[in-house]
Amino acid sequence: MNPVLVASDLDRTLIYSAAALGLTTPDAEAPRLLCVEVYQAAPLSYLTERAAELLTELAGRAVLVPTTTRTREQYRRIHLPGPPTPFAVCANGGHLLVDGHTDHDWHRTVRARLDDACAPLDEIREHLHRTADPAWLLKERTAEDLFAYLVVDRALMPRTWVKELEAWAAPRGWTVSVQGRKVYAVPRPLTKSAAVAEVARRTGATRTLAAGDSLLDADLLLAADAGWRPGHGELADTGWTAPHITALPERGVNAGERILREALHAVAP
Which residues span the domain enclosing 250? Predict the structure, then answer.
């Protein structure tokens, strides 16, 4: 029997920073948490202990593929419970890890697609630097020399600036996504779905399930056979939906647990 592939975004889908936990119940009723990421000697990301159990069981029943916009270095800070995953997608599809190692052939394929279809990263960075106001721009970064992102003060950043950036970037083959305090500029062909499709080809999976919370996850969800989005995030805020995607009411870390429960049921009803 061909395996089922489960591809899930990580941050604010399966794992959550303290600020994104979204816990509103009294301490006595709050779920027990497991730290899965430490950065600069401090705990950074969590999931519930029940989610950890579900994740371990899911990894034993399906091809589990963490699918993230994080760089490889950022991804390797995360230590998910359960057995090591044989595949992981990093840099929004720009890198495919196989047993923890970079697949350089895949990366060369991605680079060729970007060179053929998009304006160069340097042009995008110059525009961001020129148009972003220092009054609300906190940091400017690139990820794996593939895409750029800004860390901003959302309260001070005008919404019109994002709309203008989207209009400028689109004819140059780039997309724009706002996630929390970050504004991403990403080449349109750089997608999670393309990398996950490659994993499905290699594993022989004929059914793909997916989960994600941001517009950068939309292509992944649309390409899946079924999937879930939490009640928070960019997709929820914009009312994004698709016939085969379930919009869950849960928000924060409880949404991550619900996603894993639903995925496990879909894999092994």
Answer: 4-111+189-267
